[in-house]
Each structure stands twice: as C-alpha cells, then as structure tokens.
Amino acid sequence: MTATVTDTTYVQLLDLACGAFLLAAVLVLARRELTVIVRLFALQGVALAGIVAVIAGHDGSAELGALAAGILALRAVLLPWLLLRALAGAGPARETRPLVNVAASLLAAAALTMIAYAVSGPLVELAPSPATHAVPVGLTVVLIGFFVLVTRRRAMSQVVGFLLVDNGITASAFLTTAGVPLLVELGVSLDVLFAVLVLQILATRIRATFGDADLDELQELRD
Amino acid sequence: MTTLLLAAPIALPALGVLAYAIAGRRRAARFTGTGLAGAGLVGAGLVGAGFVGAGCAAGQLAAGIALAAAVGRPGAAAITAGPLRADALSAYMVVVIGAVALLATAASPAYLRAELDAGRATPRTIRQYGLLVQAFLAAMALAVLAANLGVLWVAVEATTIVTAFLVGQRRTRTALEAAWKYVVICSAGIALAFLGTVLLNFAAAHAPTRPGLDWAALASGAAGLDPGVTRIAVALLVIGFGTKAGLAPLHAWLPDAHSQAPAPVSALMSGVLLSVAFYAVLRIKVIADAALGIGFARTLLAVIALATLTVAASLLLAQRDYKRMLAYSSIEHMGLLALGAAAGSRLAIAAVLLHVLGHGLAKAVLFLGSGRILQTTGTSLIGEVSALAGRQPVLAACFGLGVAALVGFPPFSLFASELGIARAGFATGLGWVTTAALLLMLVIAAAMFGHTGRMLLGAAPAVDGPAATRVWAADGPGAASAPPRLPVATATPMLAGLAACAALGLAGGGVQQLLLHAADALMGAP
Q1: pLDDT tens-digit readout, B252-273
Q2: Of A125, A195, A206, which is closest to B176 when you measure between CB atoms?
C-alpha cells in the first residue's frame, strides 16, 4: 500500500516539475523584457533540476542526485548570471520587434505542443512509464526553443532560445533513460557553457562594431 | 604502446596548445611596455613559432600513418582504450586530418606575416590563432577516434567553439556576422544531433544487448533497436551532423564562415572539418541500415544529396566572390559524399573515402591560394581579379590546377572517386538520382571554369585602378609595376598538395586496398 502512495506522489511531483518546466518556456514567448526572459530561463533550470531530483529520489540514485545539484548550479545560477551580466551593459533590454507577435507566438506554442505529442508516440510506446509519458514536454520545449531562435531578433533572446533547446533535450534525456553516460553529460554541459561564453563575447563585439545587438543589422553577407 | 599510439593524434596538437599558451605568456611578460618595436619583434618571433604548429601537424600525420599501419591490415583488430577507439576508418580519417593540417599550418606563418605587415593582425591575435588552430586539430582527432557517439558529439561541438573566434578574428562587421551565424546555426543544428543521440541511447537501453552509445556495440546490436524510436533518432542525427557537414537544409552558415575565416583556417574547415562531421553520418548510416533496413537512410541521404547539389549549383552560377565560390564548391562535394553514402556499397564507401582525402587536399590548396590572392589584390570579388596568370604565374597555375582537380580532371584523385561514386550509384539502383547529380555537377563545373577563367585570364587592370593602387602602394613607388612574389613558404604547401592529390589519383591498387579495408571496418565485414 505504501508503495502505491509513494508512486502516486512520485508521479504528481514529476508532473508538477514538468508542468513548471513547460510553463517557463511558454512564458518566455509571452514576455519581451530580456531580464524577465533570463529569469524565466533560470526558473526553468530549477524545474529541470527538480525533474532530475524527483527521478533520483524514485530510483534511489545518489549519482542522479549529484547531477541534479550540478544542473541546478549550471542552468539555474551560472548561465542566468552570465546572461544578466551581459545584459547589464547592453542598453535598452527589450525585444523590440519580434517577427511574430505575442498572441501568435502563444498559438504557435500550442501547435508545437501538439506536434511534440504526435511525434513522441513511438517513444512512449517503447517503454510506457510515468517518466516517458512526460517526454513530449521535453520535446515541446525543444521546439519552442527553435521558435524563439527563429523569431527573436536580439542577440540575447537568441542565446536564450538556444539554451531552451538544450534544456528540452536534457529533460528528454533524463525522462527517457535517466540521462546519457556521465562523461558525455559533463562534456555536453561544458560545451554549452563555452558556447554561451563565446556567443556572449561575440555579442559584445557586435555591439561594439555595430552599435547595437539587433541582429537585423547582420545582413552584409549574402548571395 | 597501442594506447600511446591511439592518444598521439590528440595529444600532439594538445601539446601545441600548451606550447603556444606558455610561449605567449613569457613573451608578453618580457615585452610589456616596450612599445611598437617590441610588438614587432614579438610578432616576428610568433610567426616563426608558427612552424611549431606545422611540426605538431606533421606529428599528427605521422601518428595517423602509424595507426593506419597498425589497424589497417586485413584482419587487424581495432585498438580500444577508455573512451578512444581506432579501426581502419578512424585511422584513415586521422591521416586525412594530418595531411590537410600539415598543408594549412605550413602555409600559416607566411600568411600571418603578410597580415601582420598589413596591420590586420597583432601579436596577440597571432598567438590566439596558433593556440586555437592546435585546439581545433585536437578536437577533430578526438571526434574521429571517439569510441562512442556521445564523445564524438562533444568533440564536434568543441570544434564549433574553438573555431568561432578564428572565423571572427578580423573583427570586421562581416567577420563578426559570419562568426555569429556560424555559432548559432551550428550549435542549434548539432543540438538536433544531441537529441538524436539521446533517443538512440533510449532505444539502446531497451535493446536486448544494451549496447549504450558505443559504436562497435551499436553496430553489432543494431538489429535489436526499436525501429520507431531509431527512425526519429537517425533522422535527427543525419540532419544534425549534416548541418556541420554543410549539407542542406542547414548549410547557410558555411559560405559566410568559410569566406570570412583566415585562409589556412578556411582550408582546415573546408578540407577536413566537413568530412569529420560527415564521418559521423557514415557511422550512423551503418547503424540505421542494420536497425531499419537500407531504405530509410538511403532515401534520406539521396534527398539531402540532391537538395545540397541543387543549392550549390544555383548559387555558384552567379557567384561574384571567389572565396564564396570555393565554399559553395565544398557544399557540392559534401552533397556528392552524401550520394555515395546513399549508395552505401563497399565500393561506394571506398570511393567516398578517397573523395574525402582528394577534396581535402585540393580545397586546402585553393583556399591557401585564395588567401594569397586576397592579400595581393585586396579584393575578394571575381570581377576585380583578372589576368592573374600574367602577373603571378605560379599562384595562378596552382589555383587553376586546383580548380581542375576539384572539377574532376585526371590525373587528380577526384576523377577516380567521382567516377567510383557515380558507378556505385548506378549499380545500387540510384540511377535517376545519380543522373540528376551528374547534370548538376556539369553545371557546377561550367560555372567554376567560367569564374576561374575570368580571374586568371583577361586584360590586366589599369595600373591606376582601385585594386592596383591598394596592393602596390605598400611596396613603395618604385615597385609599382612588379607584383609581389609568391613566398616559397606559401608555394611549397600548395604544390605539395596538388602533387599529393595527383599521386593519389595515379596510385591505384595500393590505395584502393587501404580504402576497402576502411570500408570493411565501417560496415563490419570481415
């Protein structure tokens, strides 16, 4: 009897964390202030660490618990801090003219969610469990991340889009198989951290050269 | 001993990184505050130190050849150590990386010297350049020697990170634009490959043999993978690594990055980085074939190949910039590799591998040549460069021969490999696709010859033309009519690259055996 109670709690906690994870991504689409977007990204990092922690608690795995702590440090603290620091010296921190307005973006998010559920049919069928049933949430966040990457024009929003994609993939990894091998996970985290650092430095240089980090200015190279 | 051999191709450039880091710090400390003269001296010393880079690349090539000798024999087992593994295919890829790296790093000092003299580089950027190039070489070697898909992914993403600053090194508007697009598109594309990796890991965890992400285990246990999940994973992996390999639909970063990067870096990116990413596609194709039957990956790759060739042909026709012309030509050749992989037979894979090396050598020669043309004429527009044959005969001859090699003229090896890919295409039932590809290649060949002809031949520009004054003003008034001589340090790698490409084409049987062993290692045949 106790087993079913803990199982129910596990499913509820997992669904709660996944819900917060998805909600943060959708809210990124709804807001335009870059500092708010970065804070939402930090919130999503907390939710992602929560997902991993819940799975760790259920599996009784200390390694997963440590990974959850690492994810919290990287994605909820370090990366948002880097982004906020980059924004501090960047002038007006608003997404001025996104290619798609907020209402349409939210509708797109709904459509992307349905696509994610349609695509992940085979994934759920292979090993039906509470965790794999939540995989579409991870895929939805991946798709929303790509949507942000394509429709936003400020350098920092594009970085957040890239990071949303990465969060979505990490969530999918933990929901399907409790993660990729540890060595790979470490390498991936390091790569993501460096990619963000590189993008941040490039954005600073672009701002110094172009006077603004509006990527509409990037139009000199074409055929 | 074997472990040492396995680690050497990665460790040597890593030592190079260390050498540059230490040397740079010492010199910087010694010359702090000595002003311009000191900076000039540091620059000269660092250009000399560029030969350290060439030494590391030569060591990498030698290690690759030793590795190929160890695992390239028929029946030789793969060497495994920790996260590294080398079979005949990995060893061959290390040889390709080493060969192109040797050309590019040998030509770097002369290139950097000219950049320094023109004020487009500083001692600091030159030190950064040496360090990042070595890190780039180490990351590529790690990618092809990785024992599992996860480590390969990490290494490929690492190449994006280390080359980002090389692409944006000149810090002009165009260079920064190219670097930004490069990092964003490649990181996003390669993220797709990571999602594919995650899903393949999921499928592997539920397969009877539980192969994990290990290449050898995945290839042998692929039949047990769940087809539904594997299909999604393979599509994501092919598109993701295809992004980095310059395949359609996510190829848009390539012409920008390759045209803006310093010439030797363009040579490396175009000559080997694309092939290293394509190597991942080859490995995935084998797993997909065993898990899903040959139809799925073949159709996917054939469609991608045709789309890629169409993009290249349509944008080459009216191309005005010669570095972008070379970049689109790289896209074309990657499309051709995708066609060969779609055919997928033993002979097709052997031809694909020969094409990888031939294209790497020829493209390296051309990018080094284009860098020199840019430095001496001051323009990257095809229309503003003319009568190069009369003004700089050696450079023009190398460039012309390089284009001939690229288009597939004998005796260069690309002739044999293109023929091999086309024959394999017809033999494996891809007749229509191959015919369409050949027609597109004909269009591309005509465009390439047209553009190159306008650059090499034609009337010399008036001496007081804008391009002419920009170049020759640097040599003082007396030197106005004498075009700058091609430095031996630039000419030697270019001629060596062409000679190697031709020798490869003429070698025939011996090379063919080696390639077939590598193809067998890939496909798991005895």
Answers
A1: 999 999 999 999 999 999 999 9
A2: A206
**pLDDT in the model for residue B215:** 92
Using the predicted structure, report yes or no on whether residue A153 has a pLDDT greater than 60: yes
- Do residues B54 and B48 touch, judged by C-beta distance below 8 A? no
pLDDT in tens, B467-501: 444 444 444 333 334 457 888 889 999 999 999 99
Whole-angstrom Cα distance, residue B434 to residue B232?
26
Six token digits for residue B357: 């090396």
Please say whether the dihedral angle defined by the alpha carbons of residues A99, A101, A103 and A104, taken in this order, is positive or negative: negative
Substitution target from B84, B171, B173, B198 for chain A, most A beta carbons within 10 A: B198
- From the list A118, A113, A128, A122, the residue with the least C-alpha distance to A175 is A128
Strand B84-86 to strand B79-81: parallel, antiparallel, or no bridges (unpaired)?
antiparallel
Q: What is the pLDDT of residues A97-137, one digit of tens each?
A: 778 888 999 999 999 999 999 999 999 999 999 999 999 99
Residue pair A207/A90 in contact (Cβ under 8 Å)? The answer is yes
Of A123, A142, A198, the CB nearest to B161: A198
Q: Which two tokens stand for residue B405?
A: 């090699």
Conformation bin of residue B140: beta by default, left when phi > 0, alpha when psi is -120 to 50: alpha
Name residue, tokens 């997404």.
A95
Which residue, among B183, B14, B59, has the nearest Cα to A202 in the 3D structure? B183
Q: What is the residue-wise DSSP string for B88-115?
A: HHHHHHHHHHHHHHHHHHHHHHHHHHHH
Complex ipTM, two decimals? Answer: 0.94
DSSP one-letter code for B86: E
Q: Which pTM value belongs to this model?
A: 0.93
Q: Residue B79, SS3?
A: strand
Q: Do B150 and A173 touch (CB under 8 A)?
A: no
Q: Please give the pLDDT value at position B391.
A: 87
CA distances, B127 to each of B109, B112, B116 (Å): 11, 10, 12
Q: What is the mean pLDDT of chain B?
A: 88
What pLDDT, on the 0 to 100 scale, is given for residue A181?
A: 83
Provide, as residue numbers in chain B, all residues whose Cβ is less than 8 Å from the Cβ of A184: 148, 150-151, 153-154, 197, 213
How far, CA to CA in Å, does B350 sit from each of B65, B74, B88, B183?
A: 18, 15, 12, 32
Mean pLDDT of A190-199: 91
Average pLDDT over residues B241-255: 93
CA-to-CA separations, B425 to A62, B306, B412, B477, in angstroms, rounded: 52, 13, 21, 58
- Nearest residue on chain B to A187, judged by CA atoms? B154
- Determine the length of chain A: 223
pLDDT, position A187: 85
Q: Give me B490's structure tokens.
A: 């630039």
Q: What is the mean pLDDT of residues B385-392?
A: 88
Residues with Cβ within 8 Å of B85's Cβ and at least 6 positions away in sequence, in order, are: B6, B78, B79, B145, B146, B147, B215, B216
Beta bridge partners of A166: none
Residue owning tokens 């672009």:
A206
Q: By the 8 A CB rule, do A151 and A118 touch? A: no
Instruction: Give yes or no for a contact between B305 and B271, defined as CB atoms under 8 angstroms apart.
Output: no
Question: What 8-state DSSP symbol labels residue B272?
Answer: I
| B192 to chain A, closest Cα gap in Å | 9
pLDDT digits (tens, 9 = 90+) for B35-79: 444 455 555 565 566 778 888 999 999 999 999 988 887 777 889
What span, in angstroms and rounded, lies between the C-alpha atoms of A24 and B514? 54
Q: Return the biggest CA–CA distance within chain A.
A: 68
Decide: B124 and B169 in contact? Cβ < 8 Å.
Answer: no
